[in-house]
Design goal:
Length: 296
């Protein structure tokens, strides 16, 4: 009986912990946020800041690239806030909103951190984030702070939507130039992930995967650059680069008398919709004198 009660208590504790955590973002859950607000005693705090980050067009990200990309965006957003303000005060406030509520920071410290976080969102993520942040040392009601930060975030969101068309072309030009430099300077790396027959244990194919390197040699995952290239209609350069390098690899094996195997490529749908996409694929295969049967 005692053992059963201990197990029950442990399970209940585990269930409570899971309710407190949002598994997608890694931030605290909305349940945890509501508990914090309901138990908050403003008179016990010297101040409270609020930083709200809204992953813009999250639903569109999920539809266009899959739930995994949207989830990674939420997780990356939460991580940036956690690194700046600490994990204990970061919550998933809504479907696309991560919020930090740091307490007992002076105004100068909070705004310095907030400005740094806002700059990091602008420089290091490939998706758009609308932000708002505010600070108060005259807390009477937490809802006042929450209302203020929500207004500021929505103002930033509207500004970003209004100016997006103006800078998209300039941004596209820069990203295109950076992409070409990466593709031709060895910063774009192709990995072949083997496919093995589970019955015989023999190699039966591979999947071609692309990764990028930054200036320090650090590997950049595809979620950090693929959505941006899709958004700016530049993904074709990645797709055809992977095709060319894969065909070159198969051609070298063929010349060395080694066994060939089919390689799967992850082409964007937008690339396939281009008028001469199929002709381009055939031309690359002919260039390297390999059978189209080895390109999947």
């Amino acid at each position: 009986i005692v053992a059963g009660e201990l197990i029950k208590t442990a399970l209940l504790q585990k269930e409570k912990e899971l309710r407190q955590l949002d598994l997608v973002s890694g931030a605290k859950s909305r349940v945890s946020f509501n508990e914090f607000i309901s138990e908050l005693k403003p008179e016990s705090l010297s101040s409270m800041g609020a930083f709200m980050a809204n992953v813009m067009n999250l639903a569109a990200l999920n539809v266009k690239y899959g739930m995994n990309v949207g989830d990674q965006a939420l997780h990356a957003t939460a991580k940036i806030l956690q690194q700046a303000f600490g994990s204990d005060c970061v919550y998933r406030y809504g479907d696309s909103i991560i919020m930090a509520l740091p307490q007992d920071l002076d105004s100068k410290t909070f705004y310095a951190q907030a400005l740094q976080v806002a700059a990091e969102f602008e420089k290091t993520v490939s998706y758009n984030v609308a932000v708002g942040y505010t600070w108060s040392d005259t807390l009477h009601e937490a809802n006042t702070v929450l209302s203020s930060v929500n207004i500021l975030m929505n103002a930033d969101k509207n500004d970003k939507l209004q100016c997006s068309n103006k800078y998209t072309e300039a941004r596209r030009t820069k990203v295109h130039a950076d992409l070409q430099e990466a593709l031709h300077s060895g910063k774009a790396l192709i990995y072949l992930q083997p496919k093995v027959n589970i019955h015989s244990g023999t190699l039966c194919g591979a999947e071609a995967l692309i990764r990028m390197q930054d200036g320090n040699g650090k590997i950049i995952p595809p979620a950090a650059f693929i959505p941006l290239l899709e958004e700016l209609n530049l993904i074709r350069h990645i797709d055809f680069f992977v095709l060319d390098r894969t065909a070159e690899f198969l051609s070298q094996r063929q010349k060395q008398g080694l066994q060939l195997f089919p390689v799967s490529l992850n082409f964007s749908r937008s690339t396939f919709l281009e008028p001469y996409a199929v002709e381009h694929i055939c031309a690359v295969c002919n260039k390297y004198e390999i059978s189209k049967a080895f390109i999947e």
